[in-house]
Write a structure and sequence with these properties.
The chain is of the alpha+beta class and 435 residues long. It has two helices and 30 strands. The strands form eight sheets. Strands 1-30-29-26 form a four-stranded antiparallel sheet, with no helix packed on it. The chain is globular. The termini are far apart.
């Protein structure tokens, strides 16, 4: 045998072992590199996963904060005694019945609600729902002769309409079984359309005419966003007369409690007052110009009559409140007199009030600016109470009940406020001792 062959075979075997060792080391290194690459990914995933619970905890922090806000909102003003629930949209109008036991609201959800206020402190209130005719939401309400008849103003793009509903107050009738009888739904007794052409209605004020030879019928004044004001007969819907402010645009108009005067706040600083003249048979004969209230330096935003119909309280953008005596012989050119002037107690560049309402005893003036509600002493002009955030949005309407309303074992004067925030609130009157 050739001695070279075993030596060659041994060399091949040694080379194979060396090659195997080399490639084994190479593959182990690659495997280690693959693991070293994949391992940080696993670690990063593990690091990311604990972050999820922390994010989850943060998502739960918002409701907790919301709950604390809710609890904060529940800390209501001490004069805030109740909230009338159930409105699904902005409440744009409200009105008490003559006896103060019913409160009607006009809501942008298209529903009129008439609440029974047997006790202002009740946990819940019975109410009647009236769906207005299709075509436009209700914007204002005014009771007519009594709590069973209600005049509703609605508007759409074609103009404003008035509807008078009868049978609003549910009669307490029982059948033979002793169960309450089925009560028919309120019916439309009369209606008027496009009453101010294509313009909308700003305010709707009504009262029982008791001045002079007036027959005690309900009369209602509708004020347009233009310059005209129309007087309506509450029971029949007859147009009794109209006036024009000739002041570019109206802000509002009110009718005196005895039905003698109509006063309008409009674009200018002057307030125009007209007298409703009655015939011997008690019907409205005519509406004549009576007087102007001159003294403010800027537009009057709102006004209200005193319960005796002899004075008018005005609020202006000039930052002042004025009380006027209108019980003058204007036929003999006697001018109305300014009795008092008070600064509007609000901070800001141009303090003014949006709404006014005077208590039935004439002693407390309720006034609003945005979502702020204040009570002022009429005698001194001093602030009795302030609710800085009476509502969560703009206050659209305020009104005092015409008579004291039961609240527990007492009878108290109640103020109602409505707002864009879909709420109607009831407030008791503050003590006059604060002044």
């Amino acid at each position: 045998m050739d001695p070279v062959l075993p030596l060659a075979a041994l060399s091949v075997l040694i080379g194979a072992v060396i090659a195997l060792a080399f490639f084994g080391s190479y593959f182990r290194k690659r495997s280690s590199e693959v693991q070293s690459i994949s391992q940080p990914e696993l670690l990063s995933d593990q690091k990311k996963q604990p972050a999820k619970p922390s994010q989850h905890k943060k998502s739960h922090a918002k409701p907790h904060s919301h709950a604390s806000d809710k609890d904060h909102n529940k800390k209501h003003h001490p004069l805030d005694v109740n909230t009338l629930k159930g409105h699904a949209d902005s409440v744009d109008g409200l009105c008490f019945s003559p006896d103060g036991r019913s409160l009607a609201t006009a809501c942008a959800d298209g529903i009129i609600r008439v609440f029974k206020l047997d006790d202002a402190s009740s946990k819940s209130f019975k109410f009647l729902k009236i769906s207005t005719p299709v075509g436009g939401p209700p914007v204002a309400v005014s009771f007519s002769d009594d709590a069973s008849s209600l005049v509703v103003a609605s508007q759409n793009l074609t103009g404003a309409s008035l509807y008078m509903y009868g049978g609003v107050e549910k009669p307490k009738v029982s059948n033979e079984s002793g169960q309450p009888a089925k009560v028919p739904l309120p019916e439309i007794k009369w209606e008027q359309h496009k009453i101010h052409e294509k313009l909308g209605i700003l305010t709707l004020f009504g009262t029982k005419a008791s001045y002079g030879t007036a027959d005690g019928s309900a009369i209602i004044a509708s004020c347009s966003e233009g310059t005209d004001i129309i007087i309506w007969h509450g029971k029949t819907g007859k147009n009794l007369g109209h006036v024009d402010t000739n002041q570019l645009k109206n802000n509002m108009a009110a009718i005196s409690p005895n039905g003698r005067f109509i006063a309008a706040a409009a674009f200018t600083a002057d307030v125009k007052v007209w007298e409703i003249v009655y015939s011997k048979d008690g019907s409205v004969k005519e509406v004549t110009k009576a007087m102007q209230l001159k003294g403010h330096k800027s537009a009057v935003t709102w006004l209200c009559f005193t319960p005796d119909s002899e004075q008018i309280i005005t609020a202006s953008k000039d930052g002042s409140i004025r009380i006027w005596n209108i019980n003058v012989r204007y036929h003999m050119d006697e001018d109305p007199k300014t009795l008092k002037v008070f600064p509007i107690p609000l901070s800001g560049g141009s303090p003014h009030y949006d709404r006014l309402s005077l208590s039935p005893d004439g002693k407390i003036l309720a006034a609003t600016h945005g979502s702020t509600l204040q009570w002022l002493c009429v005698e001194t002009g001093k602030v009795l109470e302030t609710a800085d955030k009476a509502h969560d949005d703009f206050i659209t309407c305020i009104a005092w009940g015409p008579q004291a309303i039961p609240m527990g074992d007492k009878k108290l004067f109640i103020l109602a406020t409505a707002s864009v925030d879909k709420k109607v609130k009831l407030w008791v009157a503050p003590s006059l001792d604060a002044s």
